[in-house]
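Homework help board

Subject: predicted structure for assignment chain

Our instructor gave us this sequence and asked us to write out the predicted structure in token form, then describe one feature. I got the tokens but I'm not sure how to describe them. Can anyone check?
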Amino acid sequence: MEEAVTLTMEFYVSQKDADGANGAEADRSASERDGSHERPWKDLAQARDGVRRARAAGFAGPVTVWIGDGRYGLDEPLRFDARDSGCGEMAPTTYAAEPGAGPILTGGRRLTAWEAAGGGVYRCFIGPETLRGRGYTLFENGVRAGEARSPKQGYHAAAGKADGDARIGFRFAQGDVPRIADPANGGLKVFIWPGEGEWNWFTETKPVASVDWDAGTIAFREPAPWGIDQGSRYRVQGARELLTEPGEFVRDEREGWLYYMPRSLPIEEQEIVLPVVKRVLDVDGGGSAPGGPADEGIVRDLAFRGLTVELSDFLPAYRMPEANREREEAREALVRIENAERVTIADCVLRHGGVNGVLLNGHCRNARLLNNVVEHVGQNGIYAVGFAPGEGAFGSAAESDVNNGHVIAGNAIRAGGELIGHGSGIQLYQSGGCAIERNVIRGMPRYGISLKGRRFKAMEPAYYGTEVTWENHWAFLHARNNLIAGNDISDVMTDSQDGGMFEAWGPGLGNRLVGNRFHDSGIHFSVGYAIYLDDAADGFLVSRNVVHDLYGAGKGSLWFVVFAKGIGNVVENNLFVRNGAKAAFGTQEMAGEPNRGLTVRRNAVIDSGEQLYHFINWTDDRLKEADFNLFYRSGGEAPTVTGFRGGDTYGKQPIPWEEWRALLGGRFDAHTAIAPPLLEEPERGRFRFRPEAPVWALGWRPLEAGGDEDGNEAGNP
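My token output:
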């Protein structure tokens, strides 16, 4: 029997000596510092290299590097590779804040050499070499500045298609695009939602090739994936002529100047910081060499605890995802992890990111992202992206399933999508077997949580030498067997449409959405949903979720509380309260992907739509079971059902409730009740059914999230 490892090793990093001295008094030479408490390292890279030496010398116990107070500036990412691995789960290598300390790892550089440039604008010389490929976002006193833009708030709407290829540009209304002296070379870009004037699913940030103000046309340097047409939302940004309001900046890369109009004066007293790295922590084992050992090039058992990681840069341009996965150039983050297993980020603050907060890229297994604050990032709070079907040098679908097993729990994720319009709280692409639990997600322009894969009809004929058939196609989809439980999601879908607070598209089988709270969120234009099982989202369990106080605003419509496409999805034992929806449940077959075998049972629908069901292109196999639900509207009206009558393809002809119950030989909702719910709300958003409530006779099962010991209460997870 092996003896338990008890020997530990500790190192220290500090910007002060043990006696508290700093500055000149603490300027020991590197040779005088050994990482001890008395002679701590001042540099994180020195600490990393010292740990490497200890591991190379054979030390196999736990190693902890204690990091003291201070701001640790980085001009390049702090990189960790396979040499930085721990020696098993019981002997990790950990970089942690000293007790009571709050160390900050920053990829930003404070700008101080400002000079007046006229009109309330100041400029700082960065240098052409330094500014080349950098400086695409900026912060003043911890608040993101924006590239100078028009309009200053919201968007313009494209006036129509460009001549020829609608992807290469668009027509604009006279006056919408201010005149720019040199649009092709003056930094002018367009932030736009491509999609034929209708879809608002993804944004792009596109450099401009030319503008013809007389003709009212603008052309991109490279085409968008989709056409631009009348109504496509856009803004122009980045040119010096647009810099007119406080909190705006522009870059002059050719001359090396950064121009800024500060929010507060005097500018010398403001902390204005320019991110200079695309990632702050870069954890990458390097990957296995062709023909090498399978475990070569993997970093394992590495942890970061109690640190603040801040300030990463954005991109010179941004192209929307390809087949629902982000392109390589956009896979950046404050903390980027790849070719890694059992890496932990815990009790950290990750803020002011140019792209993502955390990226789990490619080969990445069993990451632990626990109790962190992730805020003010350019795109997603947390993004896990595995290999697309057919991608990578794998021999089979099973071999390609290398992004999985993550635990993402207890995190507060807020204010995403500040630079990319489809930013979300948590998104998994081809990543499965994950536990996403007890996270609080706020302030996202698109989803709260999203699972992505590829739908069957979009697959190639074969992958990895194997023919793709209906029977085997799920084997290529790795965003499966995920548990999404106990999360609290609000104020999302703030700037996009045809999406949901939770969303899934072609992900794979066995996913469970259980015990979450969706609340206080609106659809601000077009349509959207609380829970959206989109095309080819099959085999979901949606249970014990609480959805309350959702609404449509302006020209937006909360179409359904749950929109369930796909096959074999079970929606049961959910509570919907005070939602301004058209219908509680909607279904649709779309893009040739089947929609059948759905189960809708034991749900309580209270003031959440006139319709209980809204069917689009109904077929008799659409529902497997629908019964034992409770429906109540404050006026006492019975629900209606649409989309069943012959010819009512789009669900525009409601039929009375009793007619619905009589159809197909009384197959559906024979036991569903229309009655006062006897639901109590001792605190807003915390609900409890009274003992005599009708749901109990319908087989209602106690809600777990936020429940009392009897499980009769739901609310904050």
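Reply (TA_rk): Your tokens look well-formed. For the description, you could write something like this. The chain has a mean pLDDT of 95. That's the kind of observation they're looking for.
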